Task: inverse folding
């Protein structure tokens, strides 16, 4: 059994198969540099009964930014087409263990799903446990996803400007430390290097070990070392809004104040000429 109810082990999930209120979601997504094709990998092997959630497709069209949160109507249509209902127990996983699954966990929670968990260790842990997989495409029976959108979960550009100016809310940046410092260029053309004034660096990769969320004690140490107080409000950010959700998930697992997510993240902030950017450790 995992230390937080937001995680479910492969063995626990395998024991729950067959329930009509269980939805399993493959949320795999990869950076271009990782050279992996999430949809092709799903077709080759996935958990029995899983559906594939395309994070590049379930977005707000023509937003001009990658992975912009869709409207409630768009999300409801996408989730319903995958056979998912807001009242289901929804288990999300990805192909790296704990990389892109938190973003889809956050999306389902933001749009009103009440019981959303992440598979502890993801698909690698499922395979390592010798549990069955299936191949091919998914053919879910369409369902109705009743949206209850939480607008407070999301931070837009105008509010992010106010947060940075006032320095009243903690900002946690999930990008690698080198990109936070500005010593490594951003992968997207035209995006400046560095970070928002007042932000703190907490790389998403540091939150997991071998694809599994670290222990409560280890997470609290990581937040303290980053200069972040989990008991106080936090806004998360990353490159395009995907890996930032790992910090949201870690804070939820700790039972702390719900974090909010700056959806435009550094792609929006760093590409503008009128937003302040600093470099270095702080």
Result:
């Amino acid at each position: 059994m995992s230390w937080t109810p937001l995680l479910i082990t492969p063995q626990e999930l395998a024991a729950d198969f067959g329930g009509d209120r269980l939805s399993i979601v493959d949320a795999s997504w990869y950076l271009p540099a990782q050279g992996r094709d999430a949809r092709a990998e799903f077709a080759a092997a996935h958990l029995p009964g899983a559906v594939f959630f395309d994070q590049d497709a379930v977005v707000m069209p023509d937003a001009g930014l990658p992975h912009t949160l869709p409207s409630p109507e768009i999300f409801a249509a996408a989730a319903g087409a995958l056979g998912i209902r807001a009242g289901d127990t929804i288990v999300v996983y990805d192909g790296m263990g704990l990389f892109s699954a938190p973003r889809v966990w956050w999306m389902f929670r933001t749009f009103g799903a009440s019981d959303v968990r992440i598979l502890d260790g993801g698909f690698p842990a499922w395979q390592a446990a010798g549990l069955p997989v299936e191949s091919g495409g998914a053919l879910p029976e369409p369902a109705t996803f009743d949206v209850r959108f939480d607008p407070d979960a999301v931070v837009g550009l105008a509010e992010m400007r106010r947060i940075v100016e006032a320095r009243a809310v903690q900002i946690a940046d999930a990008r690698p430390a080198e990109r936070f410092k500005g010593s490594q260029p951003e992968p997207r053309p035209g995006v400046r290097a560095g970070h928002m004034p007042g932000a703190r660096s907490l790389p998403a990769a540091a939150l997991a070990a071998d694809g599994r969320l670290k222990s409560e004690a280890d997470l609290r140490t990581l937040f303290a070392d980053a200069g972040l107080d989990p008991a106080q409000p936090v806004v998360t950010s990353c490159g395009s809004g995907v890996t930032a959700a790992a910090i949201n998930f870690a804070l939820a697992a700790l039972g702390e104040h719900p974090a909010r997510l700056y959806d435009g993240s550094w792609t929006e902030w760093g590409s503008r000429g009128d937003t302040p950017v600093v470099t270095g450790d702080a």
